[in-house]
Structure formats: structure tokens, C-alpha cells
Structures
1.
Amino acid sequence: MDHSLLCIDLGGTKALVASVVRNEAQQIRQYTVPNQAGVDQVNAFIMRLIADNLTVNTTGIAIGVPSTLDIHSGTVLTTQNIPNWQHVPLKSLLERRFSLPVVVHNDANCFAFGEYLYGRHHASNLIGLCLGTGIGAGFVFNGNLYTGNHSAAGELGNLSYLDGIIEDYASGQFFQRQGIEGKWLAEQAHRGDPFALQQFETFGSHVGHALAQVVMMLNPDVIVLGGSVTHSYHYFKAALDANMQQLLGDTLAQSVRVIPSSLNHAPLLGAYGLFHHYNNKELANEV
């Protein structure tokens, strides 16, 4: 039987776990993240979900986390949406507990790298933007993942915007701040409800502003949108495009493709690819 990697996509509200064999995610399970728990409880949760999913064929663990981190030591530094989970030597904790090699990386970087490796976008310069509980981006330039110091490149959600930060307006927090549940709003929009459609239009304008800043700074070939909010992309696409066009002008706006992800479980596949990358293994036969 083929050896597998146990790959984990840890988000601010949910975690996905899968065994990945030759770039195919198998036996995918979802867990609710105890995001308000203390550091010991969050660590115990991660240990438990790994222990529950290990098999005799597991040869390593790759985990994407919603955090800034020291990539080389695999230490989680700051985590905005799991506020008590800070300064955690996650790689060493997991390697000591499970006696397997571990790679820890930022979740948006895992998403972007997964899209680059397996999304068939035919682009050397790609940005993967995750719209979920928060907003974060991963950058691939000339085929190489760019992380910056402490994997903080792409943390555009913390940039100032209006009376707060971009994350307040261009992520799921836009709806939460108004006491609106995203799934309910999407159902209402599907029925043609004017209030719901207006909410998505306003949201799309905010996301368009965020993307315009990214394009003006980095001028990528393609921006791939992922995360739970992207499931409602068709409701906010027009407003997103319109604001990007207004802010960038015709030439720059038309130079970049903005598309929702069509790749199943890109963050899990990106974690898989990054494990191979950091362990100097060849992916050429699988990409």
C-alpha cells in the first residue's frame, strides 16, 4: 500500500484532516476548532485529531495554521482568530509525540501553493486569497512561495481600512459584525431577497478594494479566491470587478484574472506539496 501524509488545514472555526496519497486527499474528516479555548486545550485538540487519523502507512504530518510563525522551527507566533494560541513550538511538540517528521506552515500559503501545484492556472505569479473567518493571502512568484519573515507576507487583513482593518470588511467578519449568518444570507440571496443581494454587493466592493491594493503592489497574473465565503462568489463578483476597475483602470484591471478556486481541498494539497518541498523530495511525477 502507498505511504501517505496526514495533512491538516486548521482554520479559525473548523479543521479538515486527510490522508494524502500521491496528491489525492482521502478519508477527509472535519472538526470544530475550540477557538476560544486555552493554549493547552487547543494543543490537546490538535493531538487528538492527529491520533484519531494516523494509520500504519502515515510517514509524516503537514499542517497549515492560521498564524504567523517561524517556519524553520515550526513555532506558532501569533494567531488572531484563536486568540489564546500563541508562541507554541508546534513542530517539536508533534514530532516528540508522534515520532514522525512534521512541517508547519501558514494556511494561506498552503492554499496558494496547492493552487500553484495542482490548480492548472498556467501562471508563474499567483496569489491565493482565503476569504473565511479572516482574510489572508499566499504569494507564489516565479514558481516560488514567498513567505517573508515569520510567514507574515500576505497578512493584508490587518491593514487599516475605513474605521477598522480590511479583515473587518472583506471576510466573514463583515457579516458577523452585523449579526448575520453567512449561510442564511446566501439562501436569501438565492431567493432574490433585495437586502441579501445588497449585503453581498457591499461586501464585494470591499473585497474589490482589498484586491486592488494587492494588484497595485504585486501585479500578479492570477488571484485565486478560496475559503468559505467564496461559495457565494457569484453574488458579489460584479461589485468586486466594478471596484477593481474603478481603482485600477482598464489596463491594470484586465491584466489580472480573478477566479474562485475549483480545486478540491487546495490547502491540504498545498500542505502535502510543502512537506515534500521542505524534505527535498521530488514532486515532478505528481504535478
2.
Amino acid sequence: MSISNRLVFDPTDANSIAASSTIGAHLMSSDSTLLTHVTNGAREELDVNDKVAGDLLATIDADTSAMATDLAAIEVLLTSIDSDTGDILADTNAMVTDLAAIEVLLTSIDSDTDAIKTSVELIDDLVLYEDAVHGSGDPGTMSLAVRNDTLATLVSADGDYAPLQVNADGALYVDIGNALNIDVNDVCNVAIENTATAVSVSAVAIVSSALANRSKVFVANEGNKSLYTGKAGVTTSNGFPLHPGMQHEYNLGPTPIMQVIGGTGASSEDLRVMEMS
């Protein structure tokens, strides 16, 4: 059976296109224009307008280049971040080290503060209030002195701090004259007078005439009856007693007149008197 008006694409199955049984179809555009083809090497391809594809590829290429630029910038940023991260890590490690050192210092300060507190409490315990009553176990501090067998100053100038000094026996050196405010003129260094006065039951002066510039008087009862001393007219009722064997010392100038009287049975009792000026 023969078929006419057929479209032949490939006559390779017959000796001629007319004899071929391979059929196909023409491709036409919307305006009934037959679509053409082109030979690309050993292939036949549709003849298409590749401008749009080229434009698209150009856009893709530009976007790809922009992306590459952005990726390079991102890589630089990541490198910077990595570097900064290293710096941050190093700074963090340094901060940890510093914090550890601060903790050690604070521990030391806390220990020192406790020691200071203990010292202050000890000092506070040493402070006693005026008129406070003594109590057993009250704390105190020891006062030290320097042994100096030959008394001499241990400092170089007036106003310097100096320690107390003791002799070889441990006795504290004291300036008695200054301590008692005794003027050198009060020291007896002119004359001494000795008198033996007989005392009975009538008041008599201890001496008939006082030593000139007298400053001291010593009396001793060498009898066996009590005697009584005092002002002129002294009696056994108001006189100062001087019993047998007793002695008295008086700071007495030459003007006052001291008298003495014997007690019951006194007869020529022996009163010894020494005056000094």
C-alpha cells in the first residue's frame, strides 16, 4: 500500500526519500513560519536565538563574580574574627591569671587584717580606765631598764628619749634632790651641835641656845622615863611622846623654841639633842 504526501525525515531505511517509511513533522512558529535548523558538527540543532541565554549567562557570571568578591571579603572577615578571637582568648586567659593573683592578694589582706585586729584587741586590753578596780589576770606591759653600773647619760642631747637605768643590784637610779625638790641650800653643811639636857617634871628648853641657822634637830630619850616635846609650856597631856629609847627628827629652824617635860617620876632624865645647820 502506498501513502502519498508524507513528510520524510530520514530516508536511510529506503533507497530514496520517496521510498522511505520514516515520517516526521515540521515545526512551525505561531505565525506559521517554519522553524529552521543549523548543523553543529555532526548534529543538526534547532536554530534558536541565544541572546537571552547569553544575557542570562552574563548576569549569572556577574552575580558569580560578585559572590566571589563577597566570599573573599567574608574570608577576610573570618580571618580577622579568628585573629580577634585569639586576642580575646589571650586577654581572657590574662584576666583569669590576674583574677587568681587578686584572689591570692585578697587572701593575704584578709590574713593581715585578722592579725591587725588581734593586735588592736591586745592593745585595747592593755588600756585601763582611770579609777578602774584591779582584777586578777589584768594584762600589762613590762617596763625595761638598762643596767649601768656607773651612772651616765645614754643619749646625746637634751630632749632625746632615754631608758631608765639601774645599778648592779637592780636598784633604779633616782635623783632624790630633784624628786623631793630639795634646794642645795637646805642641805646641812655648816655646823653641828650636840647637847645633853637633864629633864624632870617641869618643862625646859631642849637646848639653852639654838644653833645659828639651824635646819634640823635630832632628839633621843636615853633615860628610863617617858618624855614629851612641844611648844613652850608643853605638858604631859599635850606633848609629843618620846618614850625611853625613842628618837625623833625635826626640820626645825633656830627661831621656834621646843621644850620637853618628863612624865611621872622623871628626874634628870637624859635627853640627847643634835642640831645641824
3.
Amino acid sequence: MMKEHAKRILIVDDEEAVRTVLANFMSREGFESDCAASGDEAIRLLETRRYDFVITDLMMPGDDGLELLQRIRAMNSDVPVAIMTGFGTLDRTIEALRRGAVDFIEKPFDFNHISQLLYKVFERQRREAGYSEALALLVSGTFVLPNDPVVLESAARLATKRLEGTHSHDGVYLALIECLTNAMEHGNLEIGQEEKINAVSAGALDELKRSRLADPALGNRKIFLTMEARDDSLRFTVRDEGKGFDYRNLPDPTEAENLFNASGRGVLLVRCYMDEVSWNDKGNEITILK
């Protein structure tokens, strides 16, 4: 578990029991936390102190989680915000993701998912020093990348740097990370979706990736990230050297149950964050537009 004593998290929920459970979890993880019972109370706290992460319930009396997210962005705050949600809130959850929420947290809680989410957000902040390594891989607008998550995150951060300070930055960055991770795991390393789910459940995903990386036929493959910036849009293309897949068989993102299905969850998030998403016929190249 990651221990970050300096990190402070704001928990927003109108139910005291939920606030208590999450605050106790944050304490066990080594984080400091404050709690707010409403959107108004959360804004007052945000105006008086700095937070590194906000977790808010989607459905609350008064300002709900979506309205709170809008108010936070209106303060020109770039603090990452995650939405707590359950079944029956599909439309507003997707709207929150479109408006800049970094992820959603399902009720009842999967604390392993919350821990991983916090790790990803805070680790990303620490890895900004990796820009110089990513820059060295830039050739005519294209990164030629190894199967290394640290380098992939640095390249994604650099590719989205022009969006820093805008409400869409975190969503575009996370969409790009999702595409790069899929290119590495499912494309180059040929880890199937079911295989990955089983490995995660067994706590063996890192071991599985190490074994695939040790195979030169897989580990030496490259990922190609191309960025095209225009006055009013950013276009990214991510291509791997794997066999591709049939993207036409992806779960239908308009069906509510697929929001909570591990298979296809990442692609659903990409579709929420980006304006356009498309694949080549082979299925080893994805193009996303914002």
C-alpha cells in the first residue's frame, strides 16, 4: 500500500456512516482527510485549505456531486475529483466524467479499487520529472515507446501538457493512459481480457506482465503515439505491434450494466472523456479526438 502522509483528501457525502468508513480507510492508508456533509460545506473547506483529492457522492440533497464538480472547476481548481455512484445513475455518472471527474467509485466500495485510483493519481504527480526521458523519444510528432508504464505515463503527460489548466486535461490524460496501457497489455503483451481479470483477482498481474516482457518476441515490441495539435482540437493515435482485436464486439456503452463491468470499462471511460473514438480495421490502432 502507498503511504503518503502529506496527502489530504476531502470526502463529501450526506451520510455520516459513509463519511466515517472512508475516513477510517484513508487513515489506515496513511492519508489525512476531512469530511463534508454537503456541497456548500465542501466549497467552504476548499476555499480555506488545499486538498490533493476529492471524493464526492453523486446523489445528495442540495448540490449533488455533478454540481459540486462544476463549482470546483469554476474556482479554477485542478484538484482531481472522483464520483461515488451506484446503479441507476448512469447518465449523471457519464456526465460527471465528461466534465472532468477522474473516475467513479462504486457502492458498495471496492477498497482495492480506491487504493489503486489514489495510487495512480498521486504517482502521476511524482512522475512529472520523467518528461525529459519522454522528450528524447519524440520523432516528428511521434513517440516510439517501450512497454514501460513509467515512460508511457511521462509521454502521455507531455502529449497533453498544452491542456494543463483546463477542465478537460485530466480526462484527456486518463483516456490517453488507458489507450497506451491497452496497447501494452492487450496489444504487445497479448494479455487477454479474461486473463487479466483472473490475474488481478489472484494478485498476479505484475508477475504476468513480467513474464510476457521477458519474451523478446513480445517485450521488444513498440507503441507508437502520434499527436496532432490544431487550433481547436487535439488528435492522438496509439498503435501497437500486436495482433489487434475486433472492436465491434466491445460491450455496448449505452447499457447501464456495462458501466460496472470490468470488461470494456476502460474503453467506456475513453468514450466519455473524448469527442471521437475510432479504430483501424485490424484493431491495433485507436484514434481519439478532443
